[in-house]
Every structure is written in C-alpha cells, then in structure tokens.
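Re: the request from the purification team.
They wanted to know what the chain is likely to look like in 3D before they choose a buffer screen. I agreed to run a prediction and write the result into the notebook, where they can find it.
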Amino acid sequence: MKHGFLQKAYEARSADETRALYDEWSATYEEEIRDQGYATPGRCAAALAKFAPDQTLPILDFGCGTGLSGLSLKLAGFATIDGVDISPDMLAKAEAKRLYRDLRIVEPGENLAPICRNYSAVAAIGVIGAGSAPPTVIDGILSGLPREGLFVMSFNDHALADKANTGRLNEWLDCGAARCLFREHGPHLPGIGLNSTVYVIQKN
C-alpha cells in the first residue's frame, strides 16, 4: 500500500487544511496505520489504567479520530468514553464502532477547559505535534482537569524534535502545577521506524 496520507500527516498546515486532510484520509486511515503496527493507543491505555483509581468514571478521548484510541481504552477497562475531533468524517467512523457514550466536533482553537472539567481523565493519543494539534492543547486540557485529574498523552519522534511541544509540557511540570507519573519511550509506528514517548500527567 502507498502511504501518501501518512507522509503528509507530519507536515505543518493550517487547521482547515488539517481537517480536510483527515476527512479525506478517514476511509483508509485505519488500514494504513495498522499496516505499520500502530502501537501508541495500546501503550497509552495501559499506562493510564495503572494510575486511574476508578475506571468507571467518564474519560475524554481528545482527537479520537476513527476510534482506535477509544477501542484501546475500552480494552484496558475504561467503561465510559466520550470523544471529540475536528474531522466529521473521522467521527463518523468512530460512531460506527459504538464505543463512545458521546461524540462531538471540537473546533480548532476552542477553549478546552470547560469541556475537560467534566472528566477525571483525558487522553490525547498521537494527537499533539506538527500537522495535528498544537502544544497549546496541553494548556487547555490541564487547565480544565480537576485537581488530581489524569492526562495521558504522547509525542512521537517528530513532535519530540520540536522543543515547543516538550517545552509546553515542562512548563506545567517545572512550576509544580502538574507532575509526571509515567514516561516511556517505545514503538509508535514500527513499520516506518517511528517511536513515541507516552506520558501520564497528574494535575496538582
């Protein structure tokens, strides 16, 4: 299979261009990334499950895409999952899986804090980085999470190379507003030799 969409995914673009790309990609997205051994959703879900005291509480799958991350969260034991994404076509694929209690469009730049304050945990799996969500998403999610709320997220190697991403996370950690419970570098898309770091962050 050709991997034209996957190659484009890591290129910087506007929010409207990103939405259009993922709408177009939705039909072949799962096949393309599964061909490459997409490992980060399972790694994130397993890491979050280690620290979540009550897996019956609702969690938010931010940037849920077609629902692969939701499936991993469900398999890890999370009972009630809501999802948001900028792509209507991706959300249609997620809805067909019947994994989510609620699904909705989130607009680029939307204030995430009012959304996230309704959850004890938020997941942003393979979402933040060039060609996807900006690092300011970290601020919106952690601002909204209640005290001791959990945030599982990942940076792939492309995102790690951009210090704006790790710098934004470190601002929260260095000032003591949040703490890192878990950090592990491992496989992301092994078929193309791409890794990712998975984090579990707790808001203080």
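For the purification team: The mean pLDDT is 90.
Please add any questions underneath this entry.
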